[in-house]
Write a structure and sequence with these properties.
Elements (H helix, E strand, L loop, with lengths): L14 H13 L5 H31 L4 H13 L1 H16 L12 H13 L4 H20 L2 E4 L2 E4 H4 L8 H17 L1 H21 L5 H8 L7 H30 L31 H15 L1 H12 L3 E4 L9 E5 L4 E8 L3 H19 L6 H4 L3 H14 L12 H32 L5 H15 L9 H5 L7 H4 L5 H19 L1 H12 L7 H7 L8 H17 L3
Parallel strand pairs: 3-5
Antiparallel strand pairs: 1-2, 4-5
Helix pairs in contact: 1-2, 1-4, 2-3, 3-6, 4-5, 4-6, 6-9, 9-10, 11-17, 11-24, 12-13, 13-14, 14-16, 16-21, 16-22, 17-18, 17-21, 17-24, 21-22, 21-24, 22-23
């Protein structure tokens, strides 16, 4: 890209390469608002290079957690580049916010300046080394989880591969598979608890250093939660309890009766997703055999929805930025990471041929579509959409594609998949409330003991979970929160999924009446990136941002109606 402040071939993984450009931004003369705009534009250009360098190192590490070379390269960036970037960013923010021409800037920069002022408010130099230690611990936890495999049914299998056995109609096989995974998790549970203990201590100290009385209050500022607060989250928990729990219990009652058992066990239903064996004894849903088959069918499906989405999906395939198969040494979970300089989305997941894998791929494709829709925006801050709306892009795509799932299933099997997915919406919201409630408790009580943490977790699980017989696995139940990677790597990032689900369900309501309008609303809102406030982004898609019981009940009520209408 000729004419840019930073040359295309800059290796931004090394501070000595970044430093001359950073010094230029901090030292150049600024005489007017036009000069200030030029500074912001050049700072954005530098940030794109640095962001992409860090992204590629993170991707390399998560794709190969057993590679000491890739882990070392990522940690070197974390230890030697990010601390200097933190100080540089603070100095640059102070220069911009304190400039006499700031008020002469157009309203284009309002949201950016608001975020800068917040970052200045919470910045504390003493927190830089604590942030490095935090990332090292998170990386260790990812490596521990990535190394987990189970010898089962004659082969060494990753934990995502083991998920398939939990949909077996043979209850003894499900129990054996679930128990094998639990036994493997328990081998590392002590170290994972130690890591979490250390993270809680570090995070509380970060908050104190920044002048906050709790990490909760610190993170609400750090995550730029300008449009809702702690009380809104607590109200949302109550709304979920009132609206979703009766329906969840009804689904579980039907499952228990159809399976002809007196009480459900953890191997009868996944508490997070609602997945389990078919209650009528039908074979497990298997939408694809290989990741390549899934990708090919998704291309046809997206083209069937619109030429726009089909073209965007094909672009993902052509750019060769997909790592989809599960394998030993690969970090668990799935994510989309946008390479800011190249304007290319990367998708990571662990596909094992399950319906949940199809939903994950569609979810991450929704994130990628969002990135592509707003890729035309010039500044990196303009493309850095709020997390809550990022998840609207992904979660609504899961719902909007439901009508196209026949591509993956013969003989009406897609109806089973659609009903399973809607049941998953009912299960996911209480799980979101569980994880968010747990985090609020953990960071409100940073000096807690392991026993107190277990008691708090179990109390929250009783509020939002299924009535289950855990048999002899009570020790695992007490630490079962360890499965949720966000608690380690993305503290307080979870309620966003619930907020986004409310938006996604509203888009789905529109889609059921007028599919083209829903797709148009989606495209228009996603193309705005971070140029509007969160409530305005919701409005641009024809959605309402709200947390009250009545709002949630109107959405879940339609989900219930749709499930009743599906003969599966």
């Amino acid at each position: 890209m000729t004419g840019q402040f930073v040359p295309d071939n800059l290796d931004a993984a090394l501070w000595e390469n970044i430093e001359p450009f950073a010094n230029d931004l901090l030292e150049r003369g600024l005489n007017c608002s036009n000069c200030l705009e030029g500074l912001i534009r050049d700072a954005s250009n530098l940030a794109e290079h640095i962001s992409e360098a860090g992204a590629l190192l993170y991707i390399g590490m998560t794709c190969n957690t057993d590679s000491e070379e890739k882990k070392g390269a990522f940690l070197d960036f974390v230890s030697n580049v990010r601390p200097k970037l933190s100080e540089f960013s603070d100095s640059l923010n102070r220069r911009i916010v304190g400039h006499p021409s700031l008020d002469d800037l157009s309203d284009r920069y309002d949201l950016m300046i608001r975020a800068m002022k917040t970052d200045l408010e919470i910045f504390c130099k003493e927190n830089i080394p604590l942030g490095v230690e935090q990332t090292k611990l998170i990386t260790e936890a990812q490596a521990i989880k990535g190394a987990m495999t189970v010898d089962f049914d004659g082969e060494e299998r990753t934990l995502p591969q083991m998920s398939g056995y939990l949909e077996s109609n043979d209850r003894s096989e499900r129990e054996a598979a679930w128990s094998a995974v639990v036994e493997r998790r328990m081998l590392d549970s002590e170290r994972l608890s130690e890591i979490f203990d250390e993270l809680v201590g570090i995070r509380h100290q970060i908050a104190l250093n920044a002048g906050f009385d709790s990490y909760t209050h610190y993170m609400f500022r750090a995550m730029h939660r300008f449009d809702y607060n702690i009380e809104d989250c607590l109200e949302f928990h109550e709304s979920i309890e009132a609206v979703c729990m009766p329906l969840l219990r009804g689904i579980n009652d039907e499952r228990r009766d159809c399976l002809e058992i007196t009480r459900l066990a953890p191997w009868d239903v996944n508490e997070k997703t609602g997945f389990g064996p078919d209650i009528h004894g039908l074979p497990p849903l298997r939408p694809f055999q290989t990741a390549d088959e899934m990708v090919a069918k998704l291309s046809v499906m997206f083209h069937g929805m619109s030429g726009d989405l089909g073209g965007k999906f094909d672009k993902l395939v052509e750019m060769d930025t997909l790592d989809l198969d599960t394998r030993k040494g690969k970090a668990p979970g799935g994510y989309q990471y946008y390479l800011e300089k190249s304007r290319v989305p990367f998708i990571f997941m662990n596909a094992a041929g399950l319906q949940g894998d199809l939903e994950t791929m569609i979810h991450e494709a929704g994130h990628a579509f969002h990135s592509l829709y707003c890729g035309h925006l010039e500044l990196i801050d303009e493309r850095g959409y709020p997390i809550e709306f990022a998840e609207v892009a992904s979660m609504s795509m899961e719902l909007l594609t439901q009508t196209g799932w026949d591509m993956f299933y013969p003989d009406g099997e897609a109806d089973r998949a659609r009903k399973t997915h809607l049941e998953g919406v009912v299960f996911l919201l209480p799980w979101i409330a569980t994880i968010d409630s747990f985090q609020h408790w953990v960071y409100a009580n940073p000096g807690h003991s392991r026993q107190e943490r277990s008691e708090a977790w179990l109390s929250i699980r009783d509020r939002f979970g299924s009535d289950m017989d855990w048999g002899g696995h009570s020790a695992f139940r007490e630490v079962s929160w360890q499965q949720q990677g966000h608690l380690y790597g993305a503290p307080f990032y979870y309620i966003e999924y619930g907020i986004a689900q409310l938006g996604a369900l509203q888009l789905w309501q529109t889609h059921r009446k007028d599919s083209q309008k829903a797709l148009n609303d989606y495209a228009e809102a996603m193309s705005l990136g971070n140029t509007r406030t969160l409530p305005d982004l919701f409005s641009a898609a024809g959605l309402t941002l709200g947390f009250d019981e009545a709002h949630l009940a109107s959405l879940i009520g339609e989900v219930d109606e749709a499930m009743v209408g599906i003969k599966a």
